[in-house]
Amino acid sequence: MSVCTPLTPLCTPLMSHTCPSVPRLCPPVPHVLPPVPHSRPPHTPLVSPMPLSPRVTLQPSPHPAEHQHCRYNPLRDEWVLVSAHRVKRPWQGQLEEPPAEDVPRWDPANPLCPGATRANGEVNPHYEGTFVFPNDFPALQPDAPAPGDSDHPLFQAAAARGVCKVMCFHPWSDLTLPLMSLAEIRAVIDAWAELAAELGASYPWVQIFENKGAMMGCSNPHPHCQVWASSFLPNEARLEERTQRQYRDQHGVPMLLEYAEQEARRKERLVVENEDWLVVVPYWATWPFQTLLLPRRHVLRLQDLRDSERDSLASIMRRLLIKYDNLFRVSFPYSMGWHGAPTGPHLQEDCGHWQLHAHYYPPLLRSATIRKFMVGYEMLAQAQRDLTPEQAAERLRSLPEVHYKQRPQETS
Q1: Considering the chain, what is the average pLDDT of its residues?
Q2: What family does this chain come from, according to its entry (predicted)?
C-alpha cells in the first residue's frame, strides 16, 4: 500500500454523544457502540479516554491547573491524563547527576573529535564545521537479507534496510547548540537539509534526531546528532501519516498548519516566535517541558525551506534552547527530531496533508536532578503529566534569552 493513500483507521470513530458541558474533552460513550458514521463533527476526537454512561454528567473544572482532566492528542490519536495537583507531592525518589561542566574542548580519546581515531580505525579529518560520517555501529545496513516467510500471522517479520550516519555540529566538545553562533547553527540546518534530500532520494523515511545528555542515553558529550534512513516507514511516521491525512480529508486543511495558526492566536502555550516559526508547549504535551517547533508556512520537508526560513530557524532554535538551559541552569537534556513528509517513492505523491515539524522531549520535571518517569500507569494505561502545558509554557516564556553562562557574573 502506498504510504500517501488513506490507511484503515486503528480506532472506530464514535457517534457525537457530546456532553454539553465539555463537548471536546470527555464525550460520554454508550456501552454498546452505535454504527460507524460516515464522518464525525469537526474537532471530535477519534477515541474517547473512557467509557461513560450517557446518564453521566461531567462538570467542567473552573481551575484546570488544580484538577485532573484528559486532553486529546490528534497527532497520535490518543489521550493524555493531566494531573497538575501531583506536582506538589514530596519527592523521595531517584535523583539524577547533573551534567558535567568540565568537558574538555578537545580530547584525542574522544572518537568524535577532529583528528581522533574511531572504533573502526578510521581517523577523523581536522574538520572546522559540521562533519558527517557513517555510524560505526549502525542499526540499519543497506544490504541486510530479508527474513523468511512467516508460517503464522502472530509471527511476522519484514525486511529492514537502510543507512545510519552521525553528524557532528562543531569541532569543540564543550559546546552545545545554544552556545553556538547563529551562523554555526545555520550550518547545521543546511547539513540536515542536504542529508534529508540525499538520503530521501531513495529511502522512504529519513529520521534526524539528537539525544542530548547522558540522561537521554547520549554516550558522548560532543555536540552531534544521528540520521537514520530506512526502507520502511517507522511506527511514529505511519501514525502521523494516518492522523494528518484523516484531518486534512475531514477539515480541508493540514492539521499542524491549522494548529500553528490557532496557537499563534491563543498565545497561552506559546514559548517563542518569529516571522517564520513558533514554538509551543503542545496542548496535548506528555513530557513536562515538551515543545513543538512549527513553521507558519505550509512546508513538507526540511529541504523545502527557503534561505530566510533557515536563518530564522537557527534563531528560534537558539532562543528555545537557551531557555531550556536557563530553566534549571544546566545543560538541558532532551531527545529531539524532525518529522516531515515521506520521501523516496513518495516524492511524486500527494503528501499535502503533512506539515514539517520538530519534537523536543526533555525529561526534567522539578529541577536538574528530578526527572519525569514514564512507568507504571504510563506504560500500562496511558500517558500522564504533572503540570499543565500552560504552566510549563509560562515558565519557559518568562526565562531570559541570554544563556546563564554568558551573563555577567553577579557580585555580592
Answers
A1: 82
A2: Belongs to the galactose-1-phosphate uridylyltransferase type 1 family.
Instruction: Assess whether pLDDT exceeds 60 at residue 379.
Output: yes
User: Phi/psi at 337 (nearest 5 deg)?
Assistant: -170, 155
- What backbone phi and psi angles, to 5 degrees, belong to 34? -75, 175
What H or E segment, with its residue span, contains residue 191? helix 182-200
- The structural domain count of the chain equals 1
The amino acid at residue 236 is: E
- What confidence score (pLDDT) does residue 93 get? 52
Q: Which residues are annotated as a binding site?
A: 86-89, 119, 135-136, 211, 217-219, 226, 240, 339, 357, 359, 372-373, 377-378, 384
**DSSP code of 364?**
B
| pTM metric for this prediction | 0.82
One of 222, 224, 346, 353 is an active-site residue; which one? Answer: 224
Q: Which domain holds residue 366?
A: 235-397
CATH of the domain at 361: 3.30.428.10
Local structure of residue 301 (DSSP, 8 states): S
